[in-house]
Amino acid sequence: MTMAIRPYWRNFIDGNWVDGADGTRIVVTDPATAQPIAEVARAVSADVDRAVAAARRCFESRVLQDLRPSDRGEMMFAVADQLDALADEIATVECFDNGKTLVAGRAEVALTKRYLRYYGGMADKLEGRQIPLGKGLLDYTVHAPFGVSGQIVPWNGPLPVGARSVACALVTGNTVVLKSPEDSPLSLFLFAEACQKAGLPDGAVNIICGYGHDAGAALAAHPDIDHIVFTGSVETGKSVLRSAAERVVPCVMELGGKSGGIVYADADLDRTAASAARGIFHHSGQICSAGSRLIVHRSIHDDLVERIRVLAEARTVGPGIDGCDMGPLISERQLEKVEALCRVGVEEGATLVIGGSRVQGLPGHFMAPTIFTGVRPEMRIAQEEFFGPVLVVIPFDTPEEAISIANGTDYGLAAGVYTRDLQLAHWTADRLVAGQIYVNEWWAGGVETPFGGMKRSGYGREKGQEALLGYVQTKNVGIRL
Ligand code: NAD
């Protein structure tokens, strides 16, 4: 069921819904039609100040820190419960501001609830250590919160990406100012509504929407934040890090990827083709861990490419509301970027097997599913992130060569290997430089499995138990009895 989209959305600061300090608004458009669907109050640096001050007051009041941790966990369960009542509206806004299908929008609600319950359940399981120092001394460690966590979220999956960071921050006693993405801000406002209805203390979670160069930069450089979680591109990440370096603020950085899957000659080709097609065409490739490079043993190259081509051709491309397999890219800007890099691929001498440009005749930002062969590892299309439905296929002859190609980019977010030989799978997983390795199924893993980058894909981990450690600092207490 779809619902009417509210025409105007305010920022959520200190438990209240507020207009932007300068009264201006951001127009949100439907990427499937390029038509405006709503306006949001545009947060500028004065709004960032206000939100950070609210989060600071809440932190200093110790209202979260003094709770028994299990009660902080209960808060997350309460937020998850509130999301049920908002699920149809969230699915609708994800469809119209993000280009997802209603089914995918509902899946995001389910995933978000999973994160809230997972981290809610961990609230009372983060324990310190007692360190023996001999007679007359008692020593123990405490996981102390940082304080105010500034969080910046990209447009491709704002609700689960934002909510998991908020949950980790709150269960460990931090407070949050989150900047939602200007291209698809609406679902996180509904998340804020769930937090409000669940009775979270005022100022514990503040969610604002502004432009990156403006509100985002102001948040990253704010003198009163203690911690940063940034998810987005490498270039923006570097500028956030420069701001953080000025004040020595610790960061969790979840950046881009150019993740490669190695397909050995003994792989199950039908399953591999299905996994590879999903890995690059799901959400039109707008996923940081998309499987955007396939490194294929020469003996099966043509056969596998043909199977993936058939799957690509069978995908329906169109508005999410029509239940199409592949929705639009988020904006004309993103579509132009993807098309331009495709043209570079052709100029570099790669072969277009299918796609390569926008889908004609549709008003929105629809990119055709695209496959390139004849790709050499040093080509720009093999090195740069498209963040679109574009697969580049690179042949190899020996396992060592495959590893060298797979590891031969600046990125290290995810990687994969397809083979029936378990020993070869282990050997390969051991040598791949990436934060997550998938064997025989792209995205094998889930909420429970630590996720994050190596090399320029960032550092720190989201998901899994390990993520919580990115939201706390160890404090040691030594006592002379
Ligand atoms: P982006 O870097 O342009 O924007 C991300 C966020 O940063 C947005 O909220 C934006 O407003 C904000 N921002 C922009 N300029 C800023 C500045 N100067 N200071 C502070 N904030 C600023 O990225 P995008 O285009 O929205 O998202 C796509 C990128 O994000 C891709 O590279 C993708 O791989 C990456 N991504 C990574 C993950 C992950 O978990 N590793 C998840 C999703 C997306």
Task: Describe this protein's structure.
With 481 residues, the protein is of the alpha/beta class. The protein folds into 2 domains: 8-255 and 458-480, Aldehyde Dehydrogenase, Chain A, domain 1, CATH 3.40.605.10; 260-450, Aldehyde Dehydrogenase, Chain A, domain 2 (3-Layer(aba) Sandwich). The protein has helices at residues 45-60, 69-98, 102-122, 158-171, 186-197, 212-220, 234-247, 269-281, 301-314, 332-347, 380-383, 399-406, 422-431; strands at residues 8-9, 11-13, 16-18, 25-30, 35-41, 137-145, 148-152, 175-180, 205-209, 227-231, 251-254, 259-263, 291-297, 351-354, 370-373, 390-396, 414-418, 436-439, 458-459, 472-480. A 7-stranded mixed beta sheet has the order 14-15-16-13-12-17-18, sandwiched between helices. Helix 4 links the parallel strand 7 and strand 8. Helix 2 (69-98) runs antiparallel to helix 3. The model has no long low-confidence stretch (mean pLDDT 97). The structure holds nicotinamide-adenine-dinucleotide.
